[in-house]
Amino acid sequence: MENPVEEIKAVVHQLTATNSPDIQKAALESYMTSDVAFRHPVCSVNAGPNSRDTMLGIYQWYRVLSPQIEIKVESIMFDSEKDVMILEGVQWFKLFFLPVKPMPARLIIRLTLRKQDGLYYISEQEDFYHPEDFAALLLPPIVPFVKFGLLASGTISGVLARASHLLGWWTPGPNAHEVNGHVEPSEAASEAGLYPDE
């Protein structure tokens, strides 16, 4: 890619949503390094010689599992100093054997780019999903149960935190102070030695 920000939407479409396996294969070979790495909630590929061939198999199997995929890239962020691109997207994916309609699943894609001969190539792809979005991707009818479980977990965490305060564990002390109506810690994390590199 000469201009990743302008070209990435077309690349994503060719890799995931094209109706041609030839276009998909050509896109993967054109835009990914031969030693590309991949991380996903259900599979991964370590960077190595010809790891792109394994990556192609994953993309091909993805289309076998869901013959009709739609994807929309909604935002693009590119850090040209670190050669990292973050995409926020929504995809509609349905396992071919499920008699349900696909639900939108939001995901974040982190791409590490490598510049060679004036062009950018994808050297690593990482896909991130919230649990309910991943459920929507695989088995849409369970989404309400996943959402309920997450909300219940949040509520239980709050109750247990209050109980721990009564026992004297992790209780905010007098070393916090208020600034403009907000409670601010009296010491920054880096000053506390949590981040020694800062």
Automatic annotation (TrEMBL):
It comes from Pholiota conissans. PANTHER family: CHROMOSOME 1, WHOLE GENOME SHOTGUN SEQUENCE, SNOAL-LIKE DOMAIN-CONTAINING PROTEIN. Residues 1-169 form the SigF-like NTF2-like domain. This is SigF-like NTF2-like domain-containing protein. It comes from the Eukaryota. Pfam families: NTF2_SigF. InterPro entries: NTF2_SigF (IPR057514).
